TrEMBL record:
UniProt key word Metal-binding: yes
Entry-linked PANTHER family: CYCLIC NUCLEOTIDE PHOSPHODIESTERASE CBUA0032-RELATED, PHOSPHOHYDROLASE
This enzyme's EC code(s): 3.1.4.17
Protein name from the UniProt record: 3',5'-cyclic adenosine monophosphate phosphodiesterase CpdA
UniProt cross-references to SUPFAM superfamilies, sorted A to Z: Metallo-dependent phosphatases (SSF56300)
MF GO annotations: 3',5'-cyclic-nucleotide phosphodiesterase activity; metal ion binding
Alphabetical keyword list: Hydrolase, Iron, Metal-binding
EC category: hydrolase
Source organism (scientific name): Streptomonospora litoralis
Lineage: Bacteria, Bacillati, Actinomycetota, Actinomycetes, Streptosporangiales
Family to which this protein belongs: Belongs to the cyclic nucleotide phosphodiesterase class-III family.
Encoding gene (name): cpdA
This protein's record includes keyword Metal-binding: yes
InterPro entries: Calcineurin-like_PHP, CNP_phosphodiesterase-III, Metallo-depent_PP-like
Length: 258
């Protein structure tokens, strides 16, 4: 069994709102870290993907939990190289390609694994899993055939009925669906991007959308300003059990713990 803490859409920009809300979540997590295996961050760590913002996000996320991270559209405004350099401490591929290759990640723990795919298209808001990422995912899941897996990415592959993000979702998701049909050990799917704690389904698996740390996106019948002001930062816990089932609990991070 593994337990994952899941946050997304920090949008760190040097300002106090984003910073304080991440600090609030991290303080909450620090207190329960002994019961959690890893922190999963599904993108948009920063607002503009600058080195300064990325360094601030890295510092805010450093805690007792190993962080498994993929980029979001806001992190790769100028390409993937700054994200790769700051967040992973790596310059990129061995073959001299500069760090523009997709930033995919796998974290194995006792009893399960979390796999994160880079769904970004640098300088675009919409998403896509590249050929390279789909090949990597196929190989990675083949190696994890006997292991329960949670798979995450930034962009949602299905319509969420939210006004701001449905037109910048993941394109070409049918290819992911076909791939997942070969890998029944994938128990559940995670994404961010939509800034709303939500549950839906994709490829016959549960798909859980992380609440946005920095803000909640209003639903069509909600008042945007009220929603922006009212919701404290939140996170999700995903428990992947030995029966290969993913169970999710959403929490808000209490104020006053930083
Ligand atoms: Fe976002
Ligand atoms: Fe996003």
């Amino acid at each position: 069994m593994i337990t994952l803490a899941h946050i997304s859409d920090l949008h760190v920009d040097g300002g106090s709102r984003a910073r304080e809300r991440v600090e609030q979540v991290m303080a909450y997590l620090d207190a329960v870290a002994d019961s959690v295996d890893a922190l999963v961050v599904t993108g948009d760590l920063t607002e503009n993907g600058t080195v300064g913002e990325l360094e601030e996000a890295r510092a805010l996320l450093s805690g007792r939990l190993p962080a498994v991270i993929c980029p979001g559209n806001h992190d790769v405004v100028e390409g993937r190289a700054p994200f790769r350099r700051v967040m992973l401490g790596s310059e990129g591929g061995e073959k001299g390609d500069p760090g523009e290759a997709p930033v995919n990640a796998v974290h194995r723990a006792d009893g399960g694994a979390v796999v994160l795919c880079d769904s970004t298209v640098p300088s675009e808001d919409g998403g896509l899993l590249s050929e390279e990422t789909l090949d990597w995912l196929e190989d990675t899941l083949a190696d994890l055939r006997q292991t329960p897996v949670v798979l995450g990415f930034h962009h949602h592959p299905v319509k969420l009925h939210t006004p701001y993000v449905d037109h910048i979702a993941m394109q070409g998701a049918d290819r992911l669906s076909v791939l997942l049909a070969r890998h029944p050990q994938v128990a559940g799917l995670l994404c961010g991007h939509a800034h709303t704690a939500a549950a839906t389904a994709f490829a016959q698996r549960p798909l859980l959308v992380a609440p946005g740390t920095v803000s909640v996106a209003p639903l069509p019948w909600e008042d945007a300003e009220q929603v922006y002001a009212a919701h404290p930062p939140a996170l999700a816990f995903h428990i992947l059990d030995d029966e290969g089932r993913m169970t999710t609990h959403f929490r808000t991070a209490p104020a006053g713990r930083t």
